[in-house]
């Protein structure tokens, strides 16, 4: 049995994680902690894997504390920058346990992971590319971590194919052209009634390809969470891993 503790257990996502862990035949819930609880209660004596689902403002501090506690961590909170990822890597090195793992997922939905993968495959074949992400208005970060990850992957694939900048004659836009991530425009929509959605738009002269992933309910993220927990338990993926695609046969 994999002993799983959940940080952010009373949140929108954390409560679903608690239920998913309790329903998994190969897992048992160790501790369910929320804001204000002492993370040092989590240790290798009671926990194999921690699932962290909180908010971007506290996630880094939580992960660094959990690394010091000597446990493996699966992170669903978004808002990770290169600097924050470097701090996690440094903490793992300082901890000195070659088997310890931290996994960070821009998105746990299998549909979103596949859409991201397909976007990387398609990117070298199109002159234009843009990303639109659509979420509920309670989401605190924009653009989403998923959209940032997708844009970075598109940019890497375009660079590897020797493509130049995406064509755009806009001179002044007042912010309407969205955030530019590695040369790819990313647009964020916050609308009541939405959950989590992403469109990747590719264009050539006379043709367009649209890749869209829709998560209508938070339960759609749970198979990915459980997959991540199973992969970081033990020594199969030591160090820092980013992206659920690393655990899929793509």
UniProtKB/TrEMBL annotation:
Protein name (record): 4-hydroxy-tetrahydrodipicolinate reductase
Taxon lineage: Bacteria, Bacillati, Actinomycetota, Actinomycetes, Bifidobacteriales
Name of the coding gene: dapB
Record-annotated Dihydrodipicolinate reductase N-terminal domain positions: 2-108
Enzyme Commission number(s): 1.17.1.8
Xref: SUPFAM superfamilies: Glyceraldehyde-3-phosphate dehydrogenase-like, C-terminal domain, NAD(P)-binding Rossmann-fold domains
A GO CC term attached to the entry: cytosol
The entry's keywords: Amino-acid biosynthesis, Cytoplasm, Diaminopimelate biosynthesis, Lysine biosynthesis, NAD, NADP, Oxidoreductase
Name of the top EC class for this enzyme: oxidoreductase
Residues the record lists as binding NAD(+): 8-13, 34, 76-78, 105-108
UniProt catalytic activity: (S)-2,3,4,5-tetrahydrodipicolinate + NAD(+) + H2O = (2S,4S)-4-hydroxy-2,3,4,5-tetrahydrodipicolinate + NADH + H(+); (S)-2,3,4,5-tetrahydrodipicolinate + NADP(+) + H2O = (2S,4S)-4-hydroxy-2,3,4,5-tetrahydrodipicolinate + NADPH + H(+)
Molecular function, one GO term: NAD binding
SUBUNIT field: Homotetramer.
Active site (UniProt): 135, 139
Pathway: Amino-acid biosynthesis; L-lysine biosynthesis via DAP pathway; (S)-tetrahydrodipicolinate from L-aspartate: step 4/4
UniProt-listed InterPro entries: DapB_C, DapB_N, DapB_N_CS, DHDPR_bac, NAD(P)-bd_dom_sf
Protein role: Catalyzes the conversion of 4-hydroxy-tetrahydrodipicolinate (HTPA) to tetrahydrodipicolinate.
Positions that bind (S)-2,3,4,5-tetrahydrodipicolinate: 136, 145-146
First-listed, main subcellular location of the protein, grouped into a coarse class: cytoplasm
Family membership noted in the UniProt record: Belongs to the DapB family.
